[in-house]
Structures are given as structure tokens and as C-alpha cells.
């Protein structure tokens, strides 16, 4: 007897966070063209991707904060991975530098979802405000 294949789908909050992260990628180079702008991929996903995720979640009557929090986590993780790949492989690090990078990485992973949460709430607020008019 053959059992049907299990289809694993993402929860809606993660799905909207990934869609928001992918949708924010074309916007980041455009923001980098502005004067005095140093937009990074992680920061762009953390703010713009979380905003888009919050908008999508609010349109589907889900919690925009949850989608924004997850998009902020994705942005922080991607930002740290880019930093480790580009800077971490350039030279040998002393013990104090390794300790600092580990501490700072933990701080970034704690703060990035909070920025995403705030941006997701703003996105949800914008949708609810526009929808109520």
C-alpha cells in the first residue's frame, strides 16, 4: 500500500515573511542609489521586507506583527551570514575579536526581529487605515 506524499507547507506568517523578503530585494539597490544611502540586504529585508510582510498579512486578516517579526529574523540572519562570509574569511582573528563578534551577533539577532516587528505593524496599520476609508 502506497501512502500519499506528505506536503509540508509553511505557516502563513513564515510564507508572508519570505514573500516580503523576496519582494524587498529589488527595492534595496534602488535605495542604494539615493544620496548618502548605505542600504544593506539584511537591513532592507528587516525594514522593507517586514513592511511588505505586514501588508500581506493584514490583507489576509492575519497578524502583521508575526509576519514582520519573522521577516526581521530573516533579514538579521542574512545580514550576519553576509558579514561572516565577506569579513570573516579575510584574516585570522584574535580571541577578543571572536568574542566581540559572537556578542554582537547575538545582539543583532535579538534586535533585528524587533525592527521587523515594528515595520510589520506599520505595514498592517497602513493597510487597515487605507481599507477603512
Automatic annotation (TrEMBL):
The keyword Transmembrane helix applies. It comes from the Archaea. Pfam families: DUF5518 (PF17647). Keywords: Membrane, Transmembrane, Transmembrane helix. The chain crosses the membrane at residues 12-32, 39-59, 71-91, 98-117. This is Uncharacterized protein. It comes from Natrinema hispanicum.
